[in-house]
Amino acid sequence: MYHNGMKEPKVSTGGGARSLARFIVFEGLDGAGTTTQSVLLDDRLKREGRRSWLTSEPTTGPIGILCRRVLSGEIPADPDTIAHLFATDRSAHLNGADGIRQHLDDGYIVLCDRYKYSSLVYQGAETDVDFVRALNARFAVPALVVFLDLSPEAADARLAARPTREIYERIEFQHAVRANYLREMEIAGRETRVIMLDGTEEQHALAEKVWEAVADASIL
Ligand code: TYD
Q1: What per-residue confidence (pLDDT) applies to 201?
Q2: Omega of the bond prior to 58 within 30 degrees of 0, cis?
Q3: In the chain, what are the domain boundaries?
Q4: What does the angle CA 200 – CA 201 – CA 203 come to, to the nearest 5 degrees?
Q5: What would the DSSP string read from start to end of 107-134?
Q6: Is the CB of 86 under 6 A from ligand 1?
Q7: Among 166, 170, 174, 178, which residue has the most ligand 1 atoms within 8 Å of its CB, making it the best to mutate?
Q8: What spacing in Å lies between the alpha carbon of 127 and ligand 1's midpoint?
Q9: What CATH superfamily is the domain 2-215?
Q10: Which atom of ligand 1 is nearest to the CA of 34?
């Protein structure tokens, strides 16, 4: 991990003892490109003949759909309830039938577009982060966290092209989210591998760096 500037990818290797092998998580601000990069990695893994499962949070299951309705502003909810909702969605995603653990047990490389770090930084910006940490404490640690970093202004410029905005897609909030990410990636780096990459890089060049990070993490 590193803190100054975004030119060189930095890695923290962490302890890794409790981490789930072959489980890779993408994190970043809204507009950072986690979806694009997780799709590109999934494509490449499949081209190389690997069994890869691409998934995301909030999920497409019933609780994830409820999360989306809260995110759109359609269903109002207080911050603690939102933290519970995301944690419930994650529990089903991780432990439920056809979930993350099941796919790992079946030998897949699992790629997840957002995971518990999103709760720590987004819900942690609205309510007591230690409460959010407690809600997420039992969720397993991935083998690799890819954090795509960029300024809230750069992210906001990308979101401007979208027709609607979700409740967290406001620049002041994204500033708080980025500060929280820098803190949480540092903490995560004590127990697993975290790589921080420049989210403003051209997508294929960035995908190459993600690929190298996956190879370096001995996941391939
Ligand atoms: P994302 O899938 O990146 O949005 P979109 O598909 O609209 O580009 O993320 C959805 C939003 O959900 C994003 O603002 C972050 C938020 N979120 C949380 O607040 N907590 C969580 O635990 C998760 C997984 C996501």
Answers
A1: 98
A2: yes
A3: 2-215
A4: 110
A5: TPEEEEES-HHHHHHHGGGTS-HHHHHH
A6: yes
A7: 166
A8: 16
A9: P-loop containing nucleotide triphosphate hydrolases (3.40.50.300)
A10: 3
* DSSP assignment letter at 161: T
The pair of three-digit structure tokens given for residue 138, joined into one six-digit string: 């039992």
Task: Look at ligand 1, atom 4, and give the residue with the nearest C-alpha.
Answer: 30
Could you tell me if the CB of 26 is within 6 A of ligand 1? no
- The CA distances from residue 206 to 32, 40, 62, 94, 136, in Å, are 12, 10, 33, 28, 29
Q: Which of left, alpha, beta for 48 (phi over 0: left; psi -120 to 50: alpha)?
A: alpha
Contact 109, 22 (CB under 8 A): yes
Specify the long-range contacts of residues 40-46, CB closer than 8 Å, at least 24 apart.
Answer: 40/203, 40/204, 40/207, 40/210, 41/111, 41/207, 41/210, 41/211, 41/214, 42/111, 44/207, 44/211, 45/109, 45/111
- For residue 79, give the H/E element and its range: helix 79-95
Q: Is 58 in the pocket of ligand 1 (CB under 6 A)?
A: yes
**Beta carbon of 114 within 6 Å of any ligand 1 atom:** yes
Please tell me the distance between residue 114's alpha carbon and the centre of ligand 1 in angstroms.
7
Chunked into runs of 10 residues, the chain (220 residues) has average pLDDT values of 47 64 98 98 98 98 98 98 98 98 97 98 98 98 98 96 94 98 98 98 98 94
